[in-house]
Amino acid sequence: MTWIEFIEEWTRKALEAAITLFFFCILCLTVTLVVLRYGFNSSLIWGSEAMNFLFIYTTSLGAAAAVSNGSHIKISFLKDMTRGGLRKILDFTGCLLVFMINAVMGWFSLPWIASAGGFESPVMRLPMWIVQVIIPLGCGLACLFCLLHMIRIAACDDPEGGNITC
């Protein structure tokens, strides 16, 4: 296992563990809110807001995890018809495009966090930057995975172009 594969595998496992934890929290919170609502005619005032925040975290980290294992949305019709050097070029270009989209989104989210991050959430009274910071973090992780994939594509010696996708 090369150092690139080690970094990618370790980061992917950490992401998947965090996503699993967040989904477990969403599940527990949902069950608790349903039982309280229908069993005791009560609720946790912060429950819905916490679920929204956890959903934002799982979505952003999940997008990065999907980039890491090549399972995000893609249109591979043209790429599947090619082999060799052309396939490597298409794979590299696809990774580069995903990298650029995430880099732009992450970059432009920083001024947004700077301007809106000081406000507090209505119920939990958390500074909104705590919720918003996951957007550039998720985009940065997606960019990291794209860079690792582009390095692996460029270094691939397989004459068929390999099977590394972004």
Average of pLDDT = 89
**Helix/strand structural class:** mainly alpha
Q: Overall 3D geometry? A: elongated
User: What composes the largest sheet?
Assistant: none
What's the domain count?
A: 1
Residues in β-strands, percent: under 5%
Q: Number of DSSP strands?
A: 0
Q: Ranges with pLDDT <50 over ≥5 residues?
A: none
Helicity level, as a percent range?
A: over 70%
**Counting H and I runs of at least 4 residues, what is the number of helices?**
6
Rg over C-alpha atoms, rounded to the nearest angstrom:
20 Å
Please specify the SSE layout and strand pairing.
Blueprint: H1 3-40, H2 47-69, H3 77-80, H4 84-116, H5 128-132, H6 134-155
Features:
0% strand, 75% helix, mainly alpha, 166 residues
Q: Could you give a quick summary of the protein structure above?
A:
The protein is built from six helices and no strands.
Can you describe what's shown?
- The chain is mostly helical and 166 residues long.
- It has one domain.
- The protein has helices at 3-40, 47-69, 77-80, 84-116, 128-132, 134-155.
- Helix 1 (3-40) runs antiparallel to helix 2 and helix 2 (47-69) runs parallel beside helix 6.
